[in-house]
Amino acid sequence: MGGEASSKPRKVNNGIVAAVCLAFFTGMVGMAYAAVPLYKMFCQVTGYGGTTQRAEKQYAGRVLDRDITIRFDANTNGIPWQFEPVARSVTIKIGATAQAHYSATNKFDRTITGRASFNVQPEMAGAYFNKVECFCFTDTTLKPGETLDMPVVFYVDPDIVNVPELKDLKTITLSYTMFPVENKQPVASSAPAAGSSNKVPDSDASLGG
Fold it and tell me: Which of 19, 35, 49, 135 is the most buried (most CB within 10 A)?
């Protein structure tokens, strides 16, 4: 009798432990799925990792009598485009709204869609670099040989001078990287002729490296 009575608490305790472990595992899985959007939100709010801010207004409200130079950088990753800033740098007043231009040309023999990511150096300046208009994270499609002007409108928040680590900052670098977006549409626009193969030619299956 005593043995049976003592076994019940063990079964109850084992059930509690199992339930706690299951809840912990489920929570860890949920956190893993939430980590990416939460990290992105954190970067957008704080400027961590050189993430710039999306400005809701087109001006800072005040302009300081102090110059800062913005340098522009462009890179490509796996996309056969010529992608570069029209001007390598511009010097503006802190708080003044300015516009810069990038240029993209498709050097490949077929239509390609690209998308640009960006960052700011030094990373701490990202929280004070406000983009009013930007082509980043927007799909851009260019036909063979086509060139597109890609403007970016921005200003530097005057509050940057109140940050001890940035108060003497003279230069900010805005860098974009263009990469290809996978085409989810069929390569052929019409149905294959009767008796023809449905195999996609190797030349259209990839960007060629």
Answer: 135
